[in-house]
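RETRY 2/3 - previous attempt timed out on the joint model. Re-submitting the same 399-residue input unchanged.
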Amino acid sequence: MSKESNLKNMLLCLFVIASVTSALLCVVYLITYEPIEESKRNKVNAAIALVVPAFDNNPSGEIIEMEIDGRIVTIYPALKEGSPVGYAVKASTTKGFSGLIVLMVGFLPDGTIYNSAVVSHLETPGLGDKMEQKKHNWSLQFNGKNPTNYKLSVKQDGGDVDAITAATISSRAFCDAVELAYKAFLTVKPEAVNPGKGDEYE
Amino acid sequence: MNMSKIHIITKGIVKENPIFVLLLGMCPTLGTTSSAINGMGMGLATMAVLTLSNMAISLISGFVPDKVRIPAYVVVIATFTGIVQLLMEAYTPALYEALGVFIPLIAVNCIVLGRAEAYASKNSVINAACDGMGMGLGFVMALTILGTVRELLGNMSVFGYKFAQGDGMLIFILAPGAFIALGYLIVIFKKLTAKRM
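RETRY 2/3 succeeded.
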């Protein structure tokens, strides 16, 4: 019942199918564009709300983007009644066990780490994925530490961080991303480095 | 719906189950079933693409010249995959993220192209839809069972509900566990259906 396979028929048939399907995809793309953007924004906002103290501005609307060591870092300042209460910093690293790790790290204005959240990662389930707070409380050890007197590398490398058992590479990568986030934070708040006052955050 | 339609649907679930009997589409099967909900989500997404593409291909097969039928079918399948992907990203972002690269890969799932070529292109729209649903249900069932078993053994939970403390046998969450669990499930499935076949 198929049509004869001559050049005209084949071209016409594929042309019609390709046109109809691409038109269909266009329509669906337009319909879903807004919800997809919305869910991406929600995800970023949820991560920000998790890592900095309560704020009343829209941090996604006041982002500062910069490039450090060839990696893009985004800073979301959180303000309450006009004064900064914290900075959520989105930083990524490729030093993980597999693929990109994207973190959201929250700093208080004095540089103390308030909290952190994993935005996305591809680490091994059951090992490296313990960096997610819903899987394990490992990453809580960073909270309340100030990188001026807290070395952001695992103990095997002479730092202050307890690595995840059997996932040292993932732990190193996590530290690397936090370190990068801190570097970015320092470029907007250089006065946060004040070694003399470091002890009071312990 | 008469008996023959029901037969077309049940055939895909038991006698020609795409996973346990035909052993098609192994890549997403092994890759996405690290938890029951992921397996079911992947199954449902594939089922949607399979049913829609079966219907569309049954409709257009009369107009498609033989020599370009495979590219034509692949374009149709890829379109439905794209639609399902966009809808999932918009309305079920968590699931979309968990399934990752496997959603676009539905386009090249051999079950979908296999059913298009072997069944949909030669049968009526209704029958093709029934076949797509049956095969899809068989796929959903297999992936959900495999996901449940792996999550149960690997994480001591079912559909995210944790009923025992501890980590379970990690290997079942990792790739080797997928092969082991699937192997045993195929044995059990063959044993249970041996009399009927």
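The mean pLDDT of chain B is 86. Closing ticket.
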